[in-house]
Design brief:
By secondary structure, the protein is of the alpha/beta class. It is built from 10 helices and 7 strands. Strand 4, helix 7 and strand 5 form a beta-alpha-beta unit. It is globular and about 50 Å long. The structure holds S-adenosylmethionine (SAM).
């Protein structure tokens, strides 16, 4: 495959097509290839957002609703969950999940995070699991402003992403695994290995959530940064100042 040109890499139309194509295999590849770590990190991310029972939460880049069981557990039957994804195929598949079928307070839509339709100060919390790496730096600024706009004063947020560990002892085998083994698994499960190799490229370029933390701070959010399993994943989390 020809390498994807840098200007195309962060084009929302391209991202949509990429995830539409991956939608059939993404869930299984993600579950098997992460040995359950992705599931664990999602739970940690949801915990960092300090959700309250009855809260109104927005799940950005929701994929096939992988984070929904955790979020729904925290907000309980009185809460409302608004989820969206740019990939119409991911959204369609998410409406076939048990979480979606069981819950009548879960609303999912096909939207681009950079131009979402939700009203100002309407959410108690924003969550995103593994959706950060496909944003360029200017797009991260827009995303941060959207989160700032959407949150009620004092509202919380947490976003987690696969990252590049700082220590070479872990970084080298981990990046070999992401670059070669996951695409192989994608192929075995009848996906396109080039797409999974591309996810490794996004991860290399993303590095970790530190840049996102700095950008979120510029947008006016109070931010903190943390890492999981020696930097294999990292998260930015915090809240909108109560007076903002
Ligand atoms: C790696 S998947 C993560 C899915 C899920 N949140 C999870 O925990 O597995 C990234 C998702 O982000 C979505 N995405 C990427 N850019 C987006 C954007 N600009 N707006 C909305 N969704 C986007 C993709 O379609 C894809 O479903």
């Amino acid at each position: 495959m020809q390498p994807v040109a840098p200007e195309k890499l962060y084009d929302p139309a391209y991202i949509k097509q990429l995830f539409n194509e991956m939608s059939g295999t993404y869930g299984l590849v993600n579950l098997i290839s992460s040995f359950g770590f992705a599931w664990w990190w999602r739970g940690q991310c949801v915990r960092l957002a300090r959700l309250n029972e009855g809260g109104k939460v927005c799940d950005f880049m929701s994929g096939q609703g992988e984070a929904w069981p955790d979020i729904l557990r925290w907000i309980g039957p009185g809460g409302q969950l608004y989820a969206f994804d740019i990939s119409n195929r991911m959204v369609e598949l998410s409406t076939q999940t048990a979480a979606f079928k069981r819950s009548n307070h879960l609303h999912v839509s096909n939207q681009n995070a950079l131009v979402i339709s939700f009203t100002n100060a309407s959410m108690d919390a924003v969550i995103s699991t593994f959706g950060l790496k496909t944003f360029s730096e200017p797009q991260l600024h827009t995303l941060a402003r959207e989160i700032m706009r959407l949150l009620k004063p004092g509202g919380t947020f947490a976003l987690v992403e696969i990252s590049v560990p700082a220590s070479a002892i872990l970084r080298i085998p981990y990046m070999i695994y992401i670059q070669y083994c996951i695409p192989l698994l994608g192929r075995v499960l009848l996906g396109n290995p080039d797409n999974y190799r591309l996810l490794a490229r996004y991860t290399r370029l993303f590095k970790n959530a530190k840049r996102a933390q700095a950008i979120f701070r510029i947008a006016g959010l109070e931010t903190q940064y943390t890492e999981f399993f020696f930097g294999c994943a990292s998260a930015v989390y915090g809240h909108k100042p109560p007076t903002a």
